[in-house]
């Protein structure tokens, strides 16, 4: 469950000279919206609109400059540092730039969320091998991310985001390196997960995909929410 | 096409693919972040320095204990005109009037706490005075009687009360406690100890600074991985603990190497120090019990020092790294 009230965010070190074209560096202005548990949201808007910035807020990589934000039922103003870490373990993120660790094999990259939960190693192996099958990368389990194609890296990032069955999945353009068939499979996965109660927000430029899988849309322009429906 | 959710739920433990390496890789790669050469070598060097400083402190403490008890436990009594008759005894009737020297000796015989009363004979007196009066004996001067009074414990015997008591029998008798010696020796020992402790503190500070710098270099090298696992929900405690265990192990290794290197040095030092740990020159030649006591006393604190070097280094490493990493992590939200 997500609840934002008048949330603004300005990147650190960026001056607050407010300009209507959003070139002043205020990434997000007074956003208010809710996403219920198990809800699916498309996050739309032109490049630079603030989609990635909003996702960073939602996965607690940055704190709002102002406003109130509640993630998975926890109020960010009142949440202590240790609780934030616990909260992050219930969130899965597909970064726009993947953020795989280049010196760890694919297997270990995907296993990271489970290892941070101190799950038994044989259980981790089963889970990781299973999802490697699903993303079609079992044969690449020992490869390092720099030796993978863009689409393969994106599939590793997707696998890492969902391996631990998070309560909230945030995906930043998760299909931009995938072919149509892989994109469709990913959408089916998201629908399955949402059906199981996972809250999902997907930022995308892929209009075709949005048309094929119509859902509730959040649209940003110049850091403002211009559509919620 | 089968969905992953359904597939994963069926994931049986029967899967035992070629992937059998059970490694706990969390991306921190601390073996690369904090290499295992430099830190142990630096810590070993500092452990040797700390061991020598601690040996100095221990030595100063043991020697000062010896010296001050040795010097303080001697009271010198000088009786001028020892052969003149003493004043009459206040108590019992004496069969014959005693000489002043003998009267003082008799009065000292039942001193509580005195282990030995020794009147220097003519030869000893001449030896004592020869630096000033030259050899040859037969001094024209009337020499006082000099009586050495040995106490078991330092500070035993009240010199003023004793002087009053002796002057009742032999006026002009001087009682001198050798406290100047012991005070100076005590001051010297305390200064040495302070220096040694200061040296240890400096070594600890340098060790902590070295470990902090190494840790910060490691944090910088693994910045990307740390930021990632932080975003995946790794706690500060987890990350700091991983780094701290690494530096603690390396510092422990360094401490161990350092104490092995310091061992021969300390043995040598304690042997060199042994002759000086006896009572000082004024006293009688060192007796067997003093030597045995020294040999018992010195090795134990040194052994404890040596044994505690590696754990102490590990503790310093662990604490320093915990603080360094947790401080560094504060930059992350
Ligand atoms: N680290 C940063 N420091 C300063 N400004 C930033 C930073 N990251 C993003 N911005 C600015 O914030 C605004 C929103 O960026 P953001 O990345 O959220 O856009 P976006 O909608 O994800 O765009 P895209 O579709 O191209 O990914 C942009 O003007 C961008 O220049
Ligand atoms: Mg973006």
From TrEMBL, chain A:
Molecular function terms from GO: ATP binding; ATP hydrolysis activity; transmembrane transporter activity
InterPro entries: AAA+_ATPase, ABC_transporter-like_ATP-bd, ABC_transporter-like_CS, ABC_transpr_LolD-like, P-loop_NTPase
Domain ABC transporter residue range list: 2-229
Described function: Part of the ABC transporter FtsEX involved in cellular division. Important for assembly or stability of the septal ring.
GO CC term, one of those recorded: plasma membrane
The species this protein was found in: Gluconacetobacter azotocaptans
The name this protein goes by in its record: Cell division ATP-binding protein FtsE
Domain of life assignment: Bacteria
Keywords: ATP-binding, Nucleotide-binding
Family: Belongs to the ABC transporter superfamily.
